[in-house]
Hints:
Layout: H1 2-10, E1 18-20, H2 54-60, H3 63-79, E2 87-89, H4 98-110, H5 125-128, E3 140-142, H6 153-162, E4 169-171, H7 180-185, H8 194-204, H9 207-215, H10 223-230
Parallel strand pairs: 1-2, 3-4
Helix pairs in contact: 3-4, 6-9
Amino acid sequence: MTEVATYRKTHADADLGLHLTLTSEWKTYRWGPVASANSVASLLDQAGTLWADTPQVGQHAKPDEAEREIRAQVDRALALGIRPTHLDTHMGSVLAAPELFAAYVKIAHEYHLPFLAIRIPGLGEKFLSVLTEKDVVLDSIVIAGDKQPADQWKDFYLNAIKGLKPGLTEMIVHLGHDDAELQAITVDHPDYGSAWRQRDYDLVTSPEFKGALRDNNIVLIKWKDLQKLVN
């Protein structure tokens, strides 16, 4: 985060969201909480790191401790001089239970930040009831699924752009380089691994991707623009 704080000083217009994290999924690259471990014990496995997947978060996490950890992550960013433009959720972990989603929304409201939210069919009223009229709710999300063949990567995204309906859509990509460092971090994890991230990077920086946005009259906006709607 210190690197992000330094970057912010010379890129004041950049969108810098906070990817709130309640999971630690990599095999050999694990992390713990920002809050003190004894204050968020239900978020941790036997090794003292965050749970490896979202279902485990839903099974074990106490809502008050999840709220404490989310708040600690926001406060850490602020202490470093980073004013987040928005909040979202790593691996969708705040959707593991309605009470966790409520904690996420509560903190977003307290800090006057827009946050990633979408009306997913079947999500249930327990989730949606905490949203207010001022909250920005996405109409759709585009993300490559774990069954997406590598040789159809470009076609998936280009077809998704062509098929967009009017409204507010977020395209979620995971960018990285398929190098030794990222290969080591993501070992034994082909989904969202180093090759996956290289494909995403190559795609969004390609002329074809930029041309598809232009040809389909897609208007790119920032979370900073959405932030103005909640303040």
